[in-house]
Q: What sequence folds into this?
């Protein structure tokens, strides 16, 4: 099978890139042909990506829809696997090609304009789908800008709603947890098209048992930022058990 992977970056960066690289490598080892339609370079681990994807199609500074159409015409994929891509012109070109599309949902970017699904002032979790409340009272149209010269940037509510609408047309949406599946359902996705693929599957769910010892040793792997919920994990451990928690973290 000829598989076109789609991502907004080229090279190593974080978990989404690791997932894409490992998936593509495994499929390639099983005899499938893989290609990549991608955004800007990360400047990290690019040689491994070049070796993995002999057919690469970069999105230029403009005319992204034409670049996507060119990838479709040249590579002739039988299926498309999107990881992170919010460019509306690219998504429209891909979905209108008629090629079956699956998307891996790595985070909340698709349906949360703030990307982290909690209110910035109260720190309470948002339990709504994308709607007008994202504009008021959430104020999500104004977001922190981590890359440009200005501290804030404008996020288009209408563009986000259009992105969600296009994604609803995909053949499959792949998520890691039941929580993320419920988030898609809140935003009008067809439950029959949502597949849960946990990153660490259990051999036998019925035999799952707690592995905590009296020392409550926890290893956390990920970014130490509020959105990852490390503070919540420590608070829960403190409330459930009087024994101290030893926590090591790596990033």
A:
């Amino acid at each position: 099978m000829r598989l076109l992977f789609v991502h907004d970056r080229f090279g190593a960066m974080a978990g989404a890139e690791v997932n894409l690289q490992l998936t593509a490598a495994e499929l390639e080892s099983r005899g499938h042909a893989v290609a990549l339609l991608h955004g800007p370079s990360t400047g990290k681990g690019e040689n491994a990506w070049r070796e993995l994807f002999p057919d690469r199609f970069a999105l230029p500074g403009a005319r992204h829809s034409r670049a996507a159409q060119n990838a479709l015409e040249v590579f002739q994929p039988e299926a498309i696997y999107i990881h992170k891509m919010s460019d509306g012109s690219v998504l429209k070109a891909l979905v209108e090609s008629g090629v079956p599309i699956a998307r891996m949902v790595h985070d909340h970017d698709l349906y949360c304009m703030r990307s982290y699904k909690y209110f910035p002032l109260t720190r309470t979790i948002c339990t709504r789908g994308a709607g007008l409340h994202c504009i008021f009272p959430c104020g999500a149209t104004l977001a922190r800008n981590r890359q440009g010269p200005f501290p804030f940037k404008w996020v288009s509510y209408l563009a986000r709603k259009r992105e969600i609408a296009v994604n609803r047309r995909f053949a499959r949406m792949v998520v890691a947890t039941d929580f993320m599946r419920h988030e898609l359902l809140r935003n009008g996705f067809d439950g029959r098209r949502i597949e849960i693929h946990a990153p660490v599957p259990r051999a036998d769910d019925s035999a799952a048992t707690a592995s905590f010892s009296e020392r409550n040793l926890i290893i956390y792997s990920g970014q130490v930022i509020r959105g990852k919920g490390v503070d919540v994990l420590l608070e829960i451990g403190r409330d459930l058990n009087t024994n101290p928690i030893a926590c090591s973290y790596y990033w």
The CA atoms of residues 71 and 195 lie 27 Å apart.
